[in-house]
């Protein structure tokens, strides 16, 4: 296994077709639409870019608390990366693509 085991939940260790669809399509599209097009966009209208970036990454982490505190803490870092991309291009779809690729990486390397 190339990825630390605490990062790999059951959906990543042995994903069924429905889990793959959720991880590669549903989660990236829905989460990035909510966090980037919603929360991050709203924050950028009210606070400076750095606090908006940090707060949106915290919100992204909070979405993942259902997978445990460790998983939520780990996704803070990709949340920062996706947020930086949103601030650069102002297009949540770029973030959704990055998110989907990140999940594809996790699926590929958690089971190896």
Structure notes:
- This protein has one domain.
- The protein is mainly α.
- The longest helix is centred in the N-terminal third of the chain and has 28 residues, at 17-44.
- It is globular and about 40 Å long.
- It starts with 9 loop residues before the first helix and ends with a helix.
- The protein has helices spanning 10-13, 17-44, 49-63, 69-74, 76-89, 92-110.
What is this structure's SSE topology?
Elements: H1 10-13, H2 17-44, H3 49-63, H4 69-74, H5 76-89, H6 92-110
Helix pairs in contact: 2-3, 2-6, 3-5, 5-6
- Weakly predicted, low-confidence segments: none
Number of strands: 0
Q: What are the secondary-structure elements, in order, as H or E?
A: HHHHHH
The helix/strand class is mainly alpha
How many structural domains? Answer: 1
Shape: globular
Largest sheet: none
Oligomer: single chain
State Rg.
Answer: 14 Å
Mean pLDDT: 91
Distance from first to last alpha carbon? 5 Å
With helices defined by DSSP (H or I, 4 residues minimum), what is the helix count?
6
Please state roughly what percent of the residues sit in beta strands, choosing from under 5%, 5-15%, 15-25%, 25-35%, 35-45% or over 45%.
under 5%
Helix content: over 70%
Please sum up the structure shown.
This protein has helices at about 10-15, 15-45, 50-65, 70-75, 75-90, 90-110. The protein has about 110 residues and is an all-alpha fold. Helix 2 (about 15-45) packs antiparallel against helix 3 (about 50-65), helix 2 packs antiparallel against helix 6 (about 90-110) and helix 5 (about 75-90) runs antiparallel to helix 6 (about 90-110).
